[in-house]
Amino acid sequence: MRPSQLLAAVVALSQLSAAWPDFGDVKAVADVHGLLYGRQDNNDESSRPTATADEPKSTNDSNPSNSEASTTAENTAKETGKATASDDNKESTVTGKPTGSVKASGTKSGSKTKTTISEGMPAGGIQMITPAVTAGAQYYKVGDWVSFAWNYTSLSFTPTAIDVLATCTANQATYTLAVNQSVEETGMVYWDTGAYQATASVPLLTEQYTLIIYDSNSSVSATAKAGYLGAYNQFTFGMYTPQPYTPWADYKCPTCNSAMSAFESMTIKALLLTSGTTIASLFYFAYSFGVL
Hints:
Helix content: 25-40%
Mean pLDDT: 75
Strand order of the largest sheet: 4-10-9-6-7
Radius of gyration: 65 Å
Number of helices: 5
Structural class: alpha+beta
Largest sheet: 5 strands, mixed
CATH topology of the domain at 125-240: Immunoglobulin-like
Shape: rod-shaped
Distance between the termini: 223 Å
CATH architecture of the domain at 125-240: Sandwich
Strand content: 15-25%
């Protein structure tokens, strides 16, 4: 060894000995094995040192990168339902999938029944009850209550409401008895002719009237369909206005006259002429044959 190399070794040893801690005595140096651990020659688990409570425990909070990775994984899991984290080259995958299902269920009750109508079936009609068909011609005094009643016939589709009218051909007027009247098994309407006549712009006349009953959703002139209510206009009745009271002394009969009319006079003359000719002929033949 060269002198220069020997000198460098001495200086290095002197610096090392100056930095060596002061153990106080030889005994402290003898116990240095308590601070140092020897090398393990085998993989026996029992020979491994056991961590004590005095040793600090490592947590993920001490590692900023692990904390950020955990936060990122939680945020990603909330959005996509899948989070992946890695630590010491080991991947841990957490997958989330919602369980359960919501299914709307229900049963709709009720069904519509379609009625099939043959083309050969008649249209719905009306049969009068009041007045009865066998009652004959009907005349009502203006000022009294008038009532009509009827039944429905051959009706497959019942209308929701009906209109009842009365028409007069003399003045071409239409009088409303009921509008949007509910349909029942037996229809009926009451007409206060006195209240109407007191405020009527078109008064009732002493004439014949026609009762009209039809579906409110249809019209009077609509063509009757099979199974549906057709416009009814078969019942006619008369209305008359009563005359005011006149004392007998002041009463004059417009059709009463003592004199005979020209026609009656001619009839009497013809009868007398024929009778006279017959009697004269009888006497002539009786005298000619010597009977007289």
